Amino acid sequence: MSNQQPSEQRLWGGRFTGASDPLMDLYNASLPYDQKMYAADIEGTRVYTMGLEKLGLITKEELSEIHRGLKLILAEWSEGKFVEKPGDEDIHTANERRLGELIGKNISGKVHTGRSRNDQVATDMRIYVREELTKLAGFLKSFIEVIIKRATKEIDVLMPGYTHLQRAQPIRWSHWLSMYATYFTEDYKRLLQIIERTNVSPLGSGALAGHPYGIDREFLAAELGFNGVIGNSLTAVSDRDFVVESMFWSSLFMNHISRFSEDLIIYSTGEFGFIKLADAYSTGSSLMPQKKNPDSLELLRGKSGRVFGSLAGFMMSIKSIPSTYNKDMQEDKEPLFDSLLTVEHSILIATGVISTLNIDAEKMEAALTMDMLATDLADYLVRKGVPFRETHHISGECVRTAEVEKLSGIDQLTMEQFKKIDARFEQDVFETFNFEQSVERRTATGGTAKSAVLKQLTNLQSQF
Ligand SMILES: *[C@@H]1O[C@H](CO)[C@@H](O)[C@H](O)[C@H]1NC(C)=O
Ligand SMILES: *[C@@H]1O[C@H](CO)[C@@H](O)[C@H](O)[C@H]1NC(C)=O
């Protein structure tokens, strides 16, 4: 190379022995991780060469030779027999090099006509991502169905509902389950929208300016199962929003999984004792024989940080790169692949956890306390025509009196004590102190009454 300096003139010798820095080859190479996309890359080339044949840039015979070679390469990858060679920088160069070996460079050399690695990699990524997200949607659907099944089966169990982690009002255990099924169903719907937006074709955009031989991009898109083409060639090669959206989706989903796990961790403590994890998802302590640690749930909670970190990192990598392709964009792969794999495993682990844990219905119900019916007491007076602002105050007075008198709960106040606080209390006030009835009063849509929870579960089920 003309700009090569003689080694004695270099300011720093270091690793330089020849024309290149061997560390740079490693630093630059993406094959170790982008080989995951081997099938997408082969499919992209298979269809692209059909487009070339339609243009008369390759013959029918050459096309069938190319397709024969691609089939062989696909088999090599899927059987783990593909041999990587020095100079295979990424999955695209590796596949093209191998194709040359199999069918001869005279034909393989035509494959890349009018195509750039820029539209090639964008195409491969979109094919790969849409398939991974579709797989995740399937796992997520099964997870939600397990939650719905469990909620239907255990509809009769009551437990405390919490705000600020303080006992607030009695709810059904199934209402808690249905809450997460609702979150996860929204995640599912959001995922389908992202798949839709991912599924558009950049192929045929060249390096940036467009295809020089007028390739039929709509044909390529349809053959590759895309819903359409990206309408601007500069956008087509530079857009990684589908990667960002996939990682945002992963982060939000992991956030939900993390809260779900945190609840279950709390419910599994000795103090709560609402649930017991199956042995497969918990670990004994190495020192304290009595302990059973909820490792699975702690990992689900912890891995949410890693997935969000991937999103934040990639956003920083691309936030101010100039338009169209820049090598920074290669940094999309490792965080994305790691996020997708972490989410996939997390869904499967969470499905295992929720389908095998045991609940202790007696402990859940024993955790209900009469003070949790203070709102119901206020509602009792509302039904007698007293404005709620006033009844809230009166009910608070009852709670205070019970505390001052050191009673076990507001239900232990005598009729005289009630009357002293407010003359509008009558004998039927004692009917308020029933957890089942408290729950059953909440029949409005989305509430915790049995009929309302069952309706939620049916609605969720109908979305799939
Ligand atoms: C880096 O890899 C790309 C392929 O992704 C290749 O075209 C380029 O020559 C490599 N650059 C260096 C400096 O090794
Ligand atoms: C490849 O093309 C060159 C130049 O046209 C020709 O000399 C050579 O025989 C060809 N090789 C094969 C294997 O067809």
TrEMBL record:
Biochemical pathway: Amino-acid biosynthesis; L-arginine biosynthesis; L-arginine from L-ornithine and carbamoyl phosphate: step 3/3
Fumarate lyase N-terminal domain boundaries: 14-309
Gene Ontology BP annotations: L-arginine biosynthetic process via ornithine
HAMAP family reported for this sequence: Arg_succ_lyase (MF_00006)
Family: Belongs to the lyase 1 family. Argininosuccinate lyase subfamily.
Species classification: Eukaryota, Fungi, Dikarya, Ascomycota, Saccharomycotina
Reaction equation(s) it catalyzes: 2-(N(omega)-L-arginino)succinate = fumarate + L-arginine
Source species: [Candida] arabinofermentans NRRL YB-2248
Name this polypeptide is given: argininosuccinate lyase
Pfam families named in the record: ASL_C2, Lyase_1
Enzyme class, UniProt record, top EC level: lyase
Ranges of residues in domain Argininosuccinate lyase C-terminal: 372-440
GO MF annotations, alphabetized: argininosuccinate lyase activity
Cited InterPro entries: Arg_succ_lyase_C (IPR029419), Argininosuccinate_lyase (IPR009049), Fumarase/histidase_N (IPR024083), Fumarate_lyase_CS (IPR020557), Fumarate_lyase_fam (IPR000362), Fumarate_lyase_N (IPR022761), L-Aspartase-like (IPR008948)
Cellular component terms (Gene Ontology): cytosol
UniProt-listed Enzyme Commission number(s): 4.3.2.1
